[in-house]
Structures are given as C-alpha cells and as structure tokens.
Automatic annotation (TrEMBL):
Name the record gives this protein: alpha-glucosidase
UniProt source species: Clathrospora elynae
Glycoside hydrolase family 31 TIM barrel domain segment(s): 404-733
Enzyme class, spelled out: hydrolase
GO molecular function: alpha-1,4-glucosidase activity; carbohydrate binding
Amino acid sequence: MVTLRQWHPRWTAVFLLLALLCCLFAPVVSVKHDNFKTCDQSGFCKRNRQFADDASASSSWMSPYTLDPASVSFKNGQLDAVVLKTLKEGEEKVRLPLTITFLDSGVARVTLDEEKRAKGDVTLRHDSQARKERYNEAGNWALVGGLKPAAGAALNSEAEQGYTKVVYGKASKHQAIIRHAPFGIEFQRDGETQVKFNERGFMNVEHWRPKAEKPKEEEKKEGEEETKEEDKKSEEQGEDESTWWEETFGGNTDSKPRGPEAIALDITFPGYAHVFGIPEHATSLSLKTTRGGDNAYTEPYRLYNADVFEYEMDSPMTLYGAIPFMQAHRKGSTVGVFWLNAAETWIDVTKKRNTANPLALGVEGHTDTQTHWMSESGILDIFVFLGPKPQDLTRQYGELTGYTAMPQSFAIAYHQCRWNYVTDEDVKDVDRRFDKFNIPYDVIWLDIEYTHEKKYFTWDPLTFVNPDKMQKQLDKRERKLVAIIDPHIKNTNDYPIIDELKKKDLAVKNKDGNQYEGWCWPGSSMWIDCFNPAAIDWWKGLFKYDRFKGTAHNTFIWNDMNEPSVFNGPETTMPKDNLHHGNWEHRDVHNINGMTFHNATYQAITERKKGEVRRPFVLTRAFYSGSQRSAAMWTGDNLAEWTHLEASIPMVLNQGISGFPFAGADVGGFFGNPSKELLTRWYQAGIYYPFFRGHAHIDTRRREPYVAGSPYTEIITQALRLRYQLLPAWYTAFHEASTTGAPIIRPNFYIHPEDENGFAVDDQLYIGSTGLLAKPVTKEGADSVSVYIADDQPYYDYFDYTTYSGAGHHTIPAPLEKTPLLMQGGHVIPRRDRPRRSSGLMKYDPFTLVVVLDKDGNAAGTLYVDDGETFDYQMGAFIHRRFSFDGARQALTSSNLETGQRTVKCEKYLKTMEKVRVEKIIIVGAPKAWKDKSEVVVMQEGEKESQRRKPMPMEYYPADGKKAAYVVVRDPRIYITKGWKIDFGEKGAGHEHHGHEH
Ligand code: NOJ
C-alpha cells in the first residue's frame, strides 16, 4: 500500500497525467456499439448485401425469379400468379404465390409467400414447436381499413409479350406493369414510372431447405480437408451459409429452427432525389445514403425495436420503434411504399445521379433514389402509394393503419415528469409550487419507483401512503396523474399478478415452450404476451379501480420498455426463438410486440369502469404502424445536450409524416443536467412537440420550471403560456390528424411540395394548417435564427407583427426570451388568451381570433372544439367552424363546417358552450384604407333585422417600420357556437383598396 509519506512528486505527475488521459479518452456518454449488431453481424443482412453486391458486380447477372404467365388470373381487383425461383439447372423451382390487390384508394398491395412453407410441407430443426409458415399476420395488427379492392381495376389486354399490365386508380391513371422474366413490377401514374420493384435484381426469397447434416464421425475424420471443400462449394454458389442454421451474438445463440428465411427486394424511385420516413432514427428528415460517400452512412437504416442506451446522433442505428413506411418526394409528386413486415429489417438507400445527356438538349439530369429492403422472416407484403401529393400519402396510409386517436384535451397540454417524484407528498409539493409560480401544467407523472419493489399495480407503502388524497389534490385543478406500467412482471413470491400470469399461462415462452424468464427492473421477470387475446382480457381486468387500488378517473398510463427491453437478452431484447401465442417466433413479430402491449393498455383504460367512458391516454416507447390509434410516443432516452435538442425536431417531424404524429422528446434531455440556457431553449422548442413532456433521469438534479430561477423561470413560463394560449389551434390540428392523417407539425415540403429548395429543411415546422411557422433555437449562445420562407406570402412575427417577405432565408432576432414564431399570411388562428393553471380550467374561456391577411388581403382558418374528454364527439357533440376573411367584401365570417343533422348529443354539448364568446379579433396586415375607420358592423345568426346592432368600435394601429398595421375589435359580443359576420367595409372605410399594404 502506498502511504501518504511514500507519495513521491513523481507519482503525482504520473497520477495527473493518467487523470488527464482519462479525461481525454473517457467516453463522453455514448451508445455501446458492441451491444447492437451491424449489418455484417446480422446474418441475413450481410447475406443480402452480398447478394446485392454480386448482382451489381456481374454484367451477366440475371435475377432468378420469373413469373409464370400461365398462372395469372385476375378477379375482383386482384391478380394471382406464381413466381418461380430457379435454383440450379435441373432442380425443382421454388413456387412463390403472388397476389397484387388493387385497392379502391388507388393503392396497390403486393404479397409474395412461399408455397412449401405455407403448406407446412417443411420440417423444423431442434424439434421446434414454432409455426412452419412465413408470418402473415402483421396486417391483423397494423391494418384497420382501406382494403376494399377497386371495382375498376382491369387487366390490360394490349400488354406486349413478356408483361402483364393492370390499369387501376382514379380515372384509371395508374398502371402496374408486371415483367415476367426476370420478375419485376413498375408502377406508373399518368404513363410515367414512379416506383420499380426488382429493377436491380436484388429480390431474394430465402426458400426453405433442409440442413445437410453431416454424420459426426465423418466430420471428425476428414476434419479440415472437408471444411475447406465445403467452403469452396459455398463460394462457388456465392452463398455464405455460416449464419443459416445458428447465429451467435454477444454470447446469445439463436437456434433458427427454420433456417434461412429472409426476404429482400430493391425498390427504386426514379427521378426522386429525396426519401423520408422509416422512423425511428436519430437522423435528418431527408434520408442519407447508406453505402458510403460524402456525409453518408455505411450501415443501412435498421428497424429492430430496441432499448438503445444513450443513443447517438446522426445515425441509421435502430431505436425503440419502427414504421416501415417510406415516401419519395420530388417537385409535383410524392409516392411511397409501406413494407408490412414485423421482423428485423434493414434498408439501404443509395442515389443514382443521371447526368444530363449533352446530346439531348433540354433534357435535365435527375436523381433516382434506390432502396434495398431486407427482412429476416415473414412474407413479402408491400403497399405502393402513387400520390401525387404528400397529403394523399398520409391520408391513404392512415386509411390502412388508422388515424391518430383524438386525445383528451389535457393530453396535449404540458406534462411534468421525472424519475422519480419520490413520495405522494413530493407530488403534492410540486403541484403546489407550479401554482405558487403561476406556471401552467396538466399532468404529473410517476416513474417506476412508486411501486412496491417494482411490482406493477402496487404502491410503495412507505412512500406513496395515500395515492387517493394525492389525486384528489390534482383533480382540484383538473390535473391528471400518469403512472408507469411496464410489460415485465416481477417473478417473485407474494405477488398475485405473477401467480395469475403463470397459472393462466399468458407469458411469452422460450424456444422449448416454457414460460420465458429474463431480467429487467424488478430482477427476474416474465413478459405478458399480448398476442394472446386471453392475455388482453386478463390485462383489462387489472386496471379496474377496485383492482388497481389508488387509481382514479384522472390516472392514465405510461407503457415503457415494451420493445421489449430485456437486460440480459440479445441486443437487450428477447431471444428471437422465443415463442408467442399461436407459436409464432419472436423473430416474426418483434417490431409489433410493443404495439400489442400498449393496445391492450388502451383497451384496459377504456373499460376501467362501466359507464365511465373517457378517452384513454397511453404513452408508449416501442411502436409500429398502427400505434397511433391508441398511444402517444416519445423518443426515449435522449441526452441533455444541444445536439439532442436539435435532432428532436426532424425526429418528431418524421413521426408526423409517418402516420404517428402524437410525438415528442424528453424536454431538458433525459440523461445529464442541462445548463439553464439549454433547459430554457428546450422548453421553447418543446412547446412545438405535439406530445410535450419534461422528463429527467433519476441521477439528475431537479429541474421543474420553477427551479432555474430568474430570468429562466419567467422565460420558461412564457413559453408554457404560449403553448396554452394556442391550445385551440393545437386541438384543431389534432382533429385534422385524427380525420385525415395530416401531421400535427409539418415539415416544409409537406406545406410547399413544389419548393425544391425546401425539401430537406427539417429544423423548422408548421403547426397544423394554421400557418404558424416555428423555428426553435437549438444552438448555444444564439441570439438570432435563420428562418427559411418558401413562398411569396408575407410572414409576420407572432409577437410584434414584424413582416418578413420573399422566398429565402431571413434572420430573425432570437434573444433568450424569444421563441421565433411567424404567421404565414392567409390564416385565422384561434387562441385563448387567459393564462390558467391547467387546460381544464380554460374549458369555457373566450376565444381570440388572429386574422392574418395574405398578400391579396384574404385569410381563412378552422376551429375544432369538443368536450375534450368523452367520446361524445363521435356522436356529433362538437363545434367545427370555419372563419374566413374576404378581402373583396371586407368581412370576417364564421360558418359551420358541420352541416349535417344536429344530434341530441350535439345540442346538449352546444348548450354547455353557448356562453363562450369570441372576445377579441385581431387583423394583422390590415389595409391602410382602414386607418380612418373606427367602427365595424356585427351581425349574428338568429338576430332579426329589427335587432340590428349599433356599430362597434375597432382600433387601428398603423404600420411602424417593418411592423405591419393591425386592427383590434374587442368583445364584439359574438359566440363561438354561432354563425356571424363582422363587416369592416360598411362605414368609413374605402372599398377601393382591398389589397395588402406591404
Ligand atoms: C426508460 C425510459 O426510457 C425512461 O424514460 C424511464 O425514466 C426509465 N425507463 C425508468 O422507468
């Protein structure tokens, strides 16, 4: 032992040097790459990339797939045929049944199965109980509609030899040209090819084959020689068999009882330079290429839901959720594919630049985006969308997988979370402090520590002594509680839930058919198998108020770790050879697993108590196509770093265009302690996440908005108030998402699909259809931001009406206290201006309408309101208005967008809202001609001519430098449930000037 006396200065130097080196080389928190596979370490990905490389390298390459023309039949919008895979000369061909269904919506669905496996005509290794078929049930979980075949789709008899053609889509604008040999499909719109399958010949269906077992003795005797011989054979055939029958990674061995069974296909988007989608990755909105080159990735985008600890930025690595929906965009057209497969999937993206032909004058060069999709198992099942608008894609994808559920209104307000609020007193204290500082919030969250020893559905008896009382306090201000419930159930004595799970046999099984046991927060655990309807039924029972004691109508649920996260499992998840209900291997269903769990929770919350029907709220970390129907998501464990704040914007935007818009990131960053500046900027950005929650890791310091102190607390409060002020606009955007599939926050390309310069812009966002354009500050020390404007409309600063016009970049001041927010001319923005402590308390508050005139002096917008709580809106109990300002008539009108018969529920609801006024109207960009005007004439539906009102005052504020002129009308005594008209032209104003003054 070295004592202090012996300590020599030389040692000090060595020590200091070591410490310095440690600092230099200590990993700045970052993902453990070794825990997750690269493509090269994932057998089927490596094989398929190699397959693609071989195909590309050889000039004589011929894809071994052909369609047998004699097998083609066409009936009721569906083509059936058989694709044959040629093995070696003389060997029997592999039969792959093909269907192409042409749907009423104009979408085409292509499926390809493998006959031998489908018939069960195969043997599995290791006496496996797994199913023999390729997994074909992903659609049962992901799809809810849009599958009606098109009556008008027809075989085109004029097809040349070697092709089968089908005409389909609205006005027969679409055409599928199916090439027989080698098999491939081109999808055309208006005679122009938009999407190509197997153009490059990367299609690969790994057919079933028995393992050629060598007698052990022989192996031993011939030893090395034999192996070499084998290797040579494989090389000749160009096939790497090393991962066909078994695969080991990180000490876990996958027994692969069905052998190699991957499916892969190349899909090309000719003329499309941008592709978006396939969340979840921490990457840019416009996807990068993945096979090297400048600023490109070397790994394919991976979709394999995983608990990626301290994930890294700018990476195609997999994260917690998967939506295999990709859209390609170019000027004038958006098309896409939805690859319905729940197994591990990798997607390579490359771009091919076709330079202009110097001899063909006027023919411009263009870029094709080429993609290569590879899934480990399952059938091939692809939907092809031909647009032509981004809105068509989100709508059609939503028809198939469902639109986002309309949440309760509290759910779109602010959520306060941390791991953990440690006692019920702590919760009440935080609640009181928010009030003390006049900071609005709606929901407080409990992470895993509230439970008794990580046993879900229990409360820690020492720290959460009186949950009822705690929730009563929250309820006083209409606030809610969200408690976490994960899918792993503690495997211990004295816990009735695990006893039931075991007894009822509802857990996921291991490959031998026994209940699978793994490690998670509680230690030894088992996982509920929500693929099993009996498990869902059981789960529903657990949430009843008399079962989950201490919960109330204002308790909602957070489902975490549902990838599933298994601490001692391969890649922190379940072994692929585990078995689910119906004996499907985990391999087949992995990416859907999390969705089955949060779906079950959603159902459970709906049925908590007979007669009490409120919209559930469930937050999920893992997700798949269709998750939007029953949950919100967040981007998992980010870091309190500026780069993570920055990355959250494209990530949430990508969720929006991929059909799952109720999304957000942990405000403040989960790991680490943000500086006060970062925290403030994160709140200012977080108010633009559809799902808006502050959250922090257990090892971090407290950071509720009131902790930071002046001026940060005040600035954060202002940001929160801005979110609350705009809740009517957000709610309207949610309504639009829930009825049309449109994103809640929208990227530039979605709003301006013709603006090529803006296709890759992903650091600013539009809120719904409001024209509100936000540009969050994501750089330390910034005092201005550059906002990209795509069109020639005037854009006004939200706070002081400074005008920015002209396409291009504009520098906007952004001192710490400011969140740059612009209003695009042409919209009417609904707000509620009275600051309250929770959104529930704003229910009957009056509205303010901000009318933002476009360059021609017009504006329009909508407002959707309902009770924010029940399902009565589905029976007509809502208000849906359109406000429009007509520049020619100089009048603002409110008209009803719901023209159908009023239901009893509707009447009843309108009655509760009948006193809710529009208390203020602001017209931004007011015509100069109004400068001498002081009155407007107001008329409201139901008032007789004889009751004609006296003109009401209006205030005109002239333009001031770059600040636009505006008008304010205060309390015009009009109601939100009524039709009305405000005439700005009747008295005093010149009718001759209708335009905009800038
Ligand atoms: C992981 C989640 O991502 C995080 O948000 C949560 O706090 C911890 N699990 C503990 O439950």
